[in-house]
Write a structure and sequence with these properties.
Elements (H helix, E strand, L loop, with lengths): L5 H11 L3 H10 L4 H12 L13 E8 L5 E9 L2 H4 L2 H17 L11 E2 L2 E2 H12 L3 E10 L3 E7 L3 E8 L3 H14 L11 H17 L4 H19 L5 E2 L2 E5 H7 L3 E9 L11 H10 L1
Antiparallel strand pairs: 1-2, 2-5, 3-4, 6-7, 7-10, 8-9
Amino acid sequence: MAEITAGMVKELRERTDAPMMDCKKALTEAEGDMVRAEEILRVRFGNKASKAAGRVAAEGTVGISISADGKTGTLIEVNSETDFCAKNEDFLKYVTELASVVNTQNPANIEAVAALPMRGATAEETRAQLVGKIGENITPRRFVRTEAKGKLVSYVHGSKIGVMVDLVGGDETLGKDIAMHIAAAKPKSLDATGVDAALIDAERRVAIEKAKEAGKPDAMLEKIAEGTVQKFLKEVTLLSQAFVKDDKMTIEQLLKSKNASVASFSIYTVGEGIEKAVVDYAAEVAAAAKV
């Protein structure tokens, strides 16, 4: 049996908000498998056990650059150490310009961005100069560049959430509405075909375990699981979601009413998936006092 360490219990606690003892029991039952332990806690406590996984800790901003004809566009995330830096005028100007450079130069990946020409130097040299001026570490983290089938429309919410939509047909107003909806509802994919099979399998397993605990007969388990999966897909796929401005229609129905479609979309939330180190100052002082 795998050894269950205090660090593993702490990590599961941070991911799920479940009580420490329950985290330890779940890890023991899962033989140290963190993903399986999280599923066990979801069965026990419901979806609350997944909420911490989406916490955003890093600072920074998103930038978007779209060509004049709306055919190519880039969404980029650049991280900083503090929100103070993220609101700095020089930092915001750098992010906007970097998005434009990436959109024009079309680098292969985020590592290749450093060598791109920018302000008579390279993007890396420009970044280093800004770090020296502001006094904080600044890191281009990721980008997505889209060549549109239709026309690209974007929306940025508070500099922290960026959305880019490839809209075929329709108009600018429809595109903005769809982009704003995506920022609010945060779909995982356009339709069910784009949802990670591992996520669907996890929903199915959790539904079956919950049904078993509720005493449902074995003959009903698959039907219950399928119903749960379909509900999950309806909630996380763009076309099936209820439109935030009118919940009586889905996004798919809205698009059909405008004789339009969405070819693709991208959404970035600043710091998504990054955990910021939490400093326990009281513990530091106590430790220093013992020296």
